[in-house]
């Protein structure tokens, strides 16, 4: 009897794989700090690329910042742009290779500061590229300085007493700003602070890539992200700070969804 029971037990699966690493994501250790949600964003992008089956046609343009080595983490063709110039490089890559899916991966210190001169014209022209914009309200790679997206009162290494609106102005809202430009077909803001919002972020990333696949125009997804190291918090505290401090300042939502994109999404569902 004991032998029969043992044989029956052995027939049962010992484990059930619920999730696997996306094939578009390299099987390597990243350099990101513990608790940083860059890794989460990377996985979402890779999952979408796999699901859309566009890995062989995708080209990543990496930016300067904490994600400067992102080309080491995606199993895709990639190139590295100078600080803030990823949209300009992506424009050239896309125009030379109009049949490819070209996307940038940029932080707020890159896109919203030195890169403002590149992101605005690219969106205004309606360049057919996809932009993944990570907003963690700080310069991460260079030591935690104040970024254009830093909150009023937020303490950083360059604003140790807190950001002063009279001295440095107020935070820039990129999703709203880019939504006003005629070439933008998709501009939304999502967050990575919990599972539900992370799933919503993935759907938005997919839609942004589909906008490019449909040859509609410029698309951007802003993702509220955490930076525990430079915020001086634990990973859990940082996620809570995103929810309680960043989300009220940077409301989540769709700021522009082109009617053509909405109709094409409806056609896909049918």
What is the compact description of this entry?
By secondary structure, this protein is α/β, with parallel strands linked by helices. Helix content is 41%, strand content 16%. The model has no long low-confidence stretch (mean pLDDT 92).
Q: For the largest sheet, list the strands in their spatial order.
A: 2-1-3-4-6-5-7
**CATH architecture type:** 3-Layer(aba) Sandwich
Tally of structural domains: 1
Distance N terminus to C terminus?
55 Å
Instruction: Estimate what percentage of residues fall within beta strands.
Output: 15-25%
CATH domain class name: Alpha Beta
Number of strands: 7
Computed Rg: 20 Å
Shape: globular
- Main beta-sheet annotation: 7 strands, mixed
One letter per element, helices H and strands E, the order comes to HHEEHEHHEHHEHEHHEH
- SS-based structural class? alpha/beta
CATH superfamily: Thiamin diphosphate (ThDP)-binding fold, Pyr/PP domains
Low-confidence stretches: none
Key terms for this structure?
globular; 270 residues; 11 helices; Rossmann fold; 7-stranded mixed β-sheet; single chain; 16% strand
Element layout with pairings:
Blueprint: H1 2-11, H2 38-52, E1 58-62, E2 77-80, H3 86-96, E3 101-107, H4 108-114, H5 116-125, E4 130-135, H6 165-168, H7 174-179, E5 184-191, H8 195-213, E6 218-224, H9 228-231, H10 235-249, E7 253-257, H11 259-269
Parallel strand pairs: 1-2, 1-3, 3-4, 4-6, 5-6
Antiparallel strand pairs: 5-7
Helix pairs in contact: 2-8, 4-5
Write a structural description.
The protein is 41% helix and 16% strand. With 270 residues, the chain is of the alpha/beta class. It has one domain (32-269): 3-Layer(aba) Sandwich (Rossmann fold), CATH 3.40.50. A seven-stranded mixed β-sheet has the order 2-1-3-4-6-5-7, sandwiched between helices. α2 crosses α8 and α4 packs across α5.
């Amino acid at each position: 009897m004991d032998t029969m029971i043992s044989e029956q037990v052995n027939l049962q699966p010992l484990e059930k794989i619920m999730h696997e690493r996306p094939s578009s994501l390299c099987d390597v250790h990243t350099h990101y700090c513990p608790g940083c949600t860059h890794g989460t964003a990377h996985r979402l992008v890779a999952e979408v690329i796999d699901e859309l089956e566009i890995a062989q046609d995708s080209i990543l343009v990496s930016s300067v910042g904490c994600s400067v080595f992102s080309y080491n983490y995606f199993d895709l063709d990639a190139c590295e742009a100078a600080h803030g110039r990823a949209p300009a490089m992506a424009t050239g890559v896309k125009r030379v290779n109009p049949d490819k899916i070209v996307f940038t991966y940029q932080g707020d210190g890159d896109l919203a500061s030195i890169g403002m001169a590149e992101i605005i014209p690219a969106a205004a022209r309606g360049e057919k590229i996809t932009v993944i914009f990570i907003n963690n309200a700080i310069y991460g790679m260079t030591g935690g300085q104040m970024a254009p997206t830093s909150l009023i009162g937020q303490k950083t290494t360059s604003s140790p007493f807190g950001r002063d609106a009279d001295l440095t102005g107020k935070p820039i809202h990129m999703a709203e700003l880019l939504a006003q430009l005629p070439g933008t077909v998709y501009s939304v803001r999502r967050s990575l602070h919990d599972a539900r919002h992370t799933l919503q972020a993935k759907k938005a990333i997919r839609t942004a890539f589909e906008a490019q696949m449909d040859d509609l125009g410029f698309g951007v997804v802003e993702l509220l992200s955490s930076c525990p190291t430079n915020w001086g918090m634990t990973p859990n505290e940082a996620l809570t700070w995103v929810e309680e401090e960043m989300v009220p300042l940077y409301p989540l939502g769709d700021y522009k969804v082109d009617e053509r994109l909405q109709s094409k999404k409806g056609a896909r569902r049918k």
